[in-house]
Amino acid sequence: MAAKKASPNKFIEKIKGLSDTNLLLSITIVIFFLMYIGAIVFQGGGFLKPQAFFNILNANAALIILSCGLSLVMINGSIDISVGGVTALVSMSCAVYLDKHNGNIWMSMLLALGIGIAFGLFQGFLIAYLEIQPFIVTLAGMFLARGLTTIVNTSPFNVENEAFQKLKDTRVIVPGMGSLNRRGVYINAYVEIGVIVAIILVLILFVVLKWTKLGRSFYAVGGNSQSAMMLGINVKRTKFIAHLICGILAGIGGFVYFLHVGSGSPSHAMGAEMDAIASSIIGGTMLTGGVGNIIGTLFGVLSLGTIQNIVSSAGLDQAWWTGITRAVMLCLFLLIQSIVIARKAKMKAKV
C-alpha cells in the first residue's frame, strides 16, 4: 500500500525535474502516437501498412526542413514568414534553369542554396543589426520572393530534365518494412531522397542546439536577451546567425520540395510558412522564445500529416476540413502549452 501511495509523488517529482522543452516534447510525442494508434484501430486500412507512415514523411520532407528553420528563429525569440515564398522561388528558379537553359543538376542545388543564403543574409542583417521587427522584414521577404517567382516564370510547368528526373525517382528501400499488395506480391517500403536529407538536418540541428555553445546562445537570447547580453553573448550576432541558418534551410527545403513535386509554379508552397509555424508550435516551440526542440518539430510535422490523412480517410476530402482540423489541433496544443507552463510554475512556487 505504501508503494502505491508513493507512486503519484514520484511521478510529480519527475514532472518537476523535466524542463519546459522536454515536457512539451514528451506531450507532443505521446499525442502523436495516440493519434496514429487511434487511426489504426478505428480506420485500419492503409494505416496498417508501414508505407502509409513513410508516405507522410515523403509528402512532408520539405516541411520538416522549413519547420526546423522556423523552430530555430522562434527559439531565438524571432519569426520568419518568408520561407514559403523562398521555397516557391527556389523551385521555379531551378525548374527554369534545368528545363529552359538545359542546366546541370548540381548547379541547380547551388542555385537553391544561394537563394536561401541571400534571403537569410538580407533579412538577418535588417532584423539583428538594424533592429527592424522580424515580422515586418520577413513579410516583405515573402512578398519579394513571391514577386520574383512570377518574374522568373508566370506559368506552371513540369521539368523534363533527365538528370533531375533520375534524382526525383530515387527511392531508398527500408529493409524489413514492406507489405503485400492486393495481388499478394511483397512490396518494399521506401522513402524519397528528400526524407534522408530532412532526417540528417534534424539530427545536425538537434546536436547543435543540445551540445554546442551556439545552441545554448539561441535559447539564452530567446529566453531573455538582456540576461544573455550580461552573460557575454553577442545577441545581435546570434539573431543574425539564426536567420541565416533559417534562410539556408529554406533554400534546401525549397529544393527538396522541388524534387517532390517535379515542377515550377508561382502557387507552389502557398501557406507553407503557416504550416511550418504550426508544426513548430505543436512540437513544443514557444512563440515567446527560449523553449523548443527540433525532435518535437519533427513530430509536429508528422502530427499535421497524420491528421490530414485521418480526415482524408474519413471521406472529408474538401480542403476546408483539413484547415479546420489543423486549426483545432493547433489551438489544442497552445492550450496544453499554457496549462503545462502555468501548472509547472505553481509547482515550482510551492517548493
How would you explain this protein's 3D organization?
With 351 residues, the chain is mainly alpha-helical. It has helices spanning 2-17, 20-42, 50-75, 83-100, 105-128, 134-152, 162-168, 193-211, 213-223, 225-230, 235-261, 272-282, 294-313, 319-350, and strands spanning 157-158, 171-180, 186-192, 263-264. The strands form two sheets. Strands 1-4 form a two-stranded antiparallel sheet. A two-stranded antiparallel ribbon has the order 2-3.
Structural class: mainly alpha
Which stretches of 5+ consecutive residues score pLDDT under 50?
1-6, 11-17
- Extended strand count: 4
Largest sheet: 2 strands, antiparallel
Binned, the helix content reads over 70%
β-strand percent reads: 5-15%
The pLDDT mean sits at 88
3D shape: globular
Summed up, the helix count is 14
Strand order of the main beta sheet, please? 1-4
Distance N to C terminus: 26 Å
SSE sequence, one letter per element? HHHHHHEHEEHHHHEHHH
Radius of gyration: 21 Å
Name the features.
351 residues; two-stranded antiparallel ribbon; mainly alpha; 14 helices; 6% strand; 74% helix
What is this structure's SSE topology?
Layout: H1 2-17, H2 20-42, H3 50-75, H4 83-100, H5 105-128, H6 134-152, E1 157-158, H7 162-168, E2 171-180, E3 186-192, H8 193-211, H9 213-223, H10 225-230, H11 235-261, E4 263-264, H12 272-282, H13 294-313, H14 319-350
Antiparallel strand pairs: 1-4, 2-3
